[in-house]
Amino acid sequence: MQVGQDWRVDQTLISQIVEGASGDVPVAQLLRKVKVMASRLQTQELASWVSHELDGYPDAVELPPYRGPFNIHVLGHFVGPFGAELKNWPIASGSFPADWQDSGLFKLTLYQSVAELADLASQETTNLAWTGDTVRMYNWAVQSGRIARVVREDFALATASRPVARHIFTGALDAVRNRILDLALELERLAPEAVQLDAPPSARAEAAQVVNNFHLFGPSNLAVSSSNFSQSLNLSLPEIGDFASLSRYLSELGLPDAQIDNLEAALEEDVAAGAPSNVPGPRVRAWLESIRQVGTGATGGLIVEGVTAGLGAFFGT
């Protein structure tokens, strides 16, 4: 068997999913296992969720919360007289009318399949451009006074990009993986043999009830405030501005190294963009939001509280 496909053939389907979701088996491969499970249990909601994750979400379907919308920044390339230009100039959403600020111009929603998300997650940053029509609309609206200027009046917008850091995509993939793992663990505890081909109807019915009661699309029940974070874990909060102590703290809390690396990259990007050093910048806030969306259950909520408390100590807030 190929690497990533070496699950033991003597395992039940549930134990295969638990093992794969606990490790580094690709999310798309996990979902195909879950698709088999959904078919055997005849659970329509689970089958629909799996199909959307594998094939992408159509516009008419409500997205799970881990797929956005996310607030993102827009950087414009403006050109002026005599070859003058301004590159990577921020276009603030506040320069737009209030009813435009929540549009897709400054929001990102992830309709792509998990395979496409994995491809996007392989890049440090993905730049999503405004369309030509959007650029023309922007210039017209600025000229007519509907949008506030962000540059001199003799400059016009040529192109606009929306840089998206990889942690947005890895966060969505981790959320899918965690939902698969949580569901598989619940089935392993209550009805481990129910999705086998020779399982009796009574066991199938019990497992189907577990699946139908599992909230695939709803937001996780997470604590988001650091004020009640319990120090019973006996962890020392990081020192202000010391990323080494923050990294050590997050590692002891149980956060994966990949997520800590994503946070370091988000911090560096915020610093490069001129964000203040005493408050979380937009990229760090987006990273924290991805952690909140990934966490599930009591343990996940505790980790989220711990992460929030650690960032608060790091920024001195």
Short description:
This protein is α+β, with helices and mostly antiparallel strands and 317 residues long.
What attributes does this structure have?
disordered N terminus, two-stranded antiparallel sheet, 11 helices, 48% helix, 9% strand
Helix content: 40-55%
Which radius of gyration do the C-alpha atoms yield? 23 Å
Tally the helices: 11
Number of strands: 6
Strand order of the largest sheet: 3-2-6-5
Structural class comes to: alpha+beta
Largest sheet: 4 strands, antiparallel
State the shape: globular
Helix/strand order? HHHEEEEHEHEHHHHHH
Distance between the termini: 51 Å
Tell me the quaternary state. single chain
pLDDT < 50 stretches: 1-10, 218-234, 295-301
* Percentage of residues in DSSP E strands: 5-15%
Average predicted local confidence, pLDDT: 80
Q: Can you walk me through this structure?
A:
The chain is an alpha+beta fold and 317 residues long. The protein is built from eleven helices and six strands. It has helices at 13-22, 27-41, 44-55, 114-121, 132-143, 166-190, 201-212, 243-253, 257-272, 282-294, 297-315; strands at residues 70-71, 75-79, 85-90, 107-108, 125-129, 156-165. A four-stranded antiparallel sheet has the order 3-2-6-5. α2 packs parallel to α6. The radius of gyration is 23 Å and the shape is globular. The termini are far apart.
